[in-house]
Write a structure and sequence with these properties.
six-stranded mixed β-sheet, five-stranded mixed β-sheet, hydrolase, dCMP_deaminase-rel, CMP_dCMP_dom
Length: 411
Amino acid sequence: MSGVMTGLGDSTYGKRKLQIKKEDLYMLTALWMEQSPWAMTTTDSDKERIVGAVFVQPNDRVLSVDCSRENDGGIVHGAIRALIKYPDQVEGCYVYLSRQPCAHCVKMLVQAAVKKVFYLPLKPEKDEQEENRSVDALFKVSPVSREVYVPNITKGDLDELASANKKNLYGKRKLEKDESVALKVEWEEWKDNDIVAKIGWDEYSDTEIKNQVDEDMKLFFKWYVQGILETGDKEEMAWEKVEDNSSAGDKEEVETPDEDEDEFDREVANHLSRLAQMLSNRTDDPNTGVGCVITIDKEIVAIGWNGYPSKALYGNHPRGSKEDKAKKKYPHIIYALENALLFRNRRELDGCVVYHTIVPSDEGISMLYQVGAKVLVLPSFLQEDELKKEKPLFYNCLPEKKLDVYRHIKG
């Protein structure tokens, strides 16, 4: 992939960009966080399941993206991690959970006065009869509302995803059958196993609603497989540290550091780079979707995607026609990195790691210097004359070692 934006002057620039709905994106993110390398590993999945959690403040700022984790031998659930980290910011939040939370999480969510809790109709965090009764009772007597989340992925969303996937940032791999159908199998088993009684979802007993929900879940799982699980050219993606701009275009000349001597966490890079790619599908830029994830101390502190200013209406901003080569468009586009930095959940970012789906602009590189970013993780790119001309700050940061830059090596 070239480090310079491609697709400029596309004849389709005038068409409205079909965006995946942000609520679906939050829920896909929560589900993907179940697969995080940071997620707990010592649990018996029949008794207690990992839960991914996304907290969104009333102003649409994503406050927290997390999952259930081990902590000094114990376990802190995904929802509770956010409540403990941001006790003065969770009030009024909309909470997206990959599964129905346990009673312990519910009472904390109620006490913290979140606004609403959404969860997918999958097997709950704790699948026990008494536990489900407690969850139901806690919600019924509290002002916190809850909803079983039925995704609204459309066939148009899948078509848009297929178009975006043609850029093939991290390659594509063929999944093992059990890997690609695992969630679908779980859903099929669960929905026919008294789901109405276990999570209090009376509406699912209506035949027409049931048929629509089944179709919606089918499309949701299909997007999850194509938009996340199939991305990455292999299960263990390969990464290399780019030492200088003279060798960045030839992977055979770049020495891959020994993992024992290198602090770069390749497993985390596999996971969060694919999350950044998934986030890029929320863009309303007609040509190029870009996603960004920022972490520090094994915590996601910001996510972002590129697009026009918030609440912008179609027709009020240039869209990059063939004639203007997109030069009129870019002053109107908020870059993914800019959105991530604007809406991050902590002020200090010194030493942070940034996962970005294209080489950042010079403005972006300057901002990374300002906040003290340490590592920049990118897809494959070539150090061409065009890159040197259009993004000189990035080109020059390599020999000056102002940032440690890693890139994916396509298999």
